[in-house]
Amino acid sequence: MKIGSKVYWRKSSGEVIYITPEIESGFARETTKDDDMGFYPQLKGYDPAQVEVLKLTYRQYYEDFQRAKSYIVNPDTGEMEFIYIDGNGGDTPTPQTPLSDQLTELKTRQESTEAALLTLMDVTTHA
């Protein structure tokens, strides 16, 4: 069984408190928020009412976590946002959607554009 990480974050700010490790084991089981808050020392002492959890699928955002300088959860959307190291020396890094999500969107747009071009080419060659 493969179980993805869980991102625990402050509801008020989006600050990530702790990310549970991914698990790949035949003996693994899903845990609850209460289980995790009682087990992980990093979560002890937090008011459960002030903490949210974002469940990720196995390996979701793996490369984003590796490449990011930092990350938060957008408190308005409940989605991960990453700050990547800017090789251009930008002034203030701004959180953005995960690069993996951006890449998926770009691939979808490219496929749509290619399909439209093929349709247009077909129409113009048969006209």
Order of helices and strands: EEEEHEHEEH
Rg: 20 Å
Strand order of the largest sheet: 3-2-5
User: What's the number of domains?
Assistant: 2
**Annotation field: number of helices:** 3
SS-derived structural category: alpha+beta
Account of the protein in words:
This protein is an alpha+beta fold and 127 residues long. The chain folds into two domains: 2-96, no CATH class; 98-127. The chain is built from three helices and seven strands. The chain has helices at residues 33-39, 62-67, 99-125, and strands at 2-3, 6-10, 16-19, 23-24, 51-55, 68-73, 80-84. The strands form three sheets. It has a three-stranded antiparallel sheet, with no helix packed on it. Strand 2 (6-10) and strand 3 form a beta hairpin. The protein is elongated and about 70 Å long. The mean pLDDT is 87.
Question: Main traits of this protein?
Answer:
3 helices; 2 domains; two-stranded antiparallel ribbon; 3-stranded antiparallel sheet; 127 residues; elongated
SSE blueprint:
Layout: E1 2-3, E2 6-10, E3 16-19, E4 23-24, H1 33-39, E5 51-55, H2 62-67, E6 68-73, E7 80-84, H3 99-125
Antiparallel strand pairs: 1-4, 2-3, 2-5, 6-7
